Amino acid sequence: MSLTAFAVSSLILAGCDTKSEQGPPNFAGDAKRGMALIKHYGCGSCHLIPQIAEAKGNVGPPLLHVGTRTYLAGFISNSPENMARWIENPQKVLPGNAMPRMGVTPQHSRDITAFLYTLK
Ligand code: HEC
């Protein structure tokens, strides 16, 4: 199965789970879809991410409890809006940092943020 087909089927399966955890209130992002998107974009090659078995990277910080962390990249205060901005383009937020721009769309960055905010 191609990566795209895998991602699409993951999204479809994700849509079936009505008991999924919710992201932050008043924030338009789908946490279940975000989980599938993290696999799709390969964030796990650099980050350890709870609940995502293949995400065991150790290039960047582990995203344990990232939903309750005070600062992102030790630089911007952690809010859903700031996290989505970071995921969409970390080089715009903090030029020269080690996380590359991954080509994440604005809606996808909101879905991923919704999932990461379930990690309390
Ligand atoms: C090539 C490695 C790499 C990839 C791929 C990568 N990141 Fe990162 N990420 C980093 C590094 C390095 C940092 C730390 C940057 C800093 O502190 O200046 C970071 C920081 C972060 C942070 C802030 C964490 C904190 O506590 O400060 C979040 C959230 C994050 N990444 C999410 C993601 C997501 C979501 C993806 C996939 C779309 C992703 N990253 C892909 C390397 C990567």
From TrEMBL:
Which spans of this chain does the record mark as coiled coil? none
Q: Which InterPro entries match?
A: Cyt_c-like_dom (IPR009056), Cyt_c-like_dom_sf (IPR036909)
Residue ranges annotated for the Cytochrome c domain, each copy included = 29-120
On the tree of life, the source organism's domain of life is Bacteria
The name this protein carries in UniProt is: C-type cytochrome
Keywords from the UniProt entry:
Heme, Iron, Metal-binding
Query: What molecular function terms (GO) are annotated for this protein?
Result: electron transfer activity; heme binding; metal ion binding
Q: Source organism lineage?
A: Bacteria, Pseudomonadati, Pseudomonadota, Alphaproteobacteria, Hyphomicrobiales
Task: Name its species.
Answer: Bradyrhizobium archetypum
